[in-house]
Amino acid sequence: MTRPLEQAVATIVCTFGEYAGRCGDKHKLCQAELKELLQNEMPTWTPMEFQECDYNKFMRVLDTDKDCEVDFAEYVRSLACLCLYCHEYFKDCPSDPPCSQ
User: Fold this and answer.
1) What is the model's pLDDT at position 88?
2) Rounded to whole angstroms, how far apart are CA atoms 82 and 60?
3) Domains of the chain
4) What are phi and psi of 65, to 5 degrees?
5) Which class for 19: exposed (0-12), middle (13-18), buried (19 or more C-beta within 10 A)?
6) What is the pLDDT of residue 32?
7) What's the Cα-to-Cα distance from 13 to each of 6, 27, 37, 51, 101, rounded to whole Å?
8) What is the pLDDT of residue 96?
9) Above 70 in pLDDT, residue 78?
10) Are 53 and 78 contacting, i.e. CB atoms less than 8 angstroms apart?
């Protein structure tokens, strides 16, 4: 039986692969692919009022090597930052976990 953390890692890898390469390099996300990934895979975390300029800013933050694409390392770093943010947010909450097991 696959454990939740193993499933999470597989989901991270597979989700990147599902969206990367639609517009070119299969190992990177262009801005359109990143936008589609965020809208489809994180709809409750991506505000509906996000404007195109917001996606431009988000892309610039994630694209640390400034090649106008997000590679897997940049993608994973962004998810790690999101996990850190969530951990900080929930660490002073009651002992019930923020997600169901």
Assistant:
1) 87
2) 16
3) 4-90 (1.10.238.10)
4) -90, 0
5) buried
6) 93
7) 11, 11, 13, 27, 21
8) 65
9) yes
10) no
Residue 7, classified by CB atoms within 10 Å of its CB into exposed (0-12), middle (13-18) or buried (19+), is exposed
Residue type (1 letter), 82: L
* pLDDT score of 36: 93
In this structure, which amino acid lies at residue 3?
Answer: R
SS3 (DSSP) at 21: coil
Q: Which two tokens stand for residue 4?
A: 């939740």
Q: Could you tell me the two tokens for 79?
A: 């998810």
Report the run of H or E that residue 59 belongs to, with start and end: helix 52-62
- Strands (DSSP E) along 2-99, which ranges? 28-29, 70-71
Instruction: Write out pLDDT tens, residues 21-73.
Output: 999 899 999 999 999 999 999 888 777 777 888 888 889 999 999 999 999 99
Contact, 76 vs 12, CB < 8 A? yes
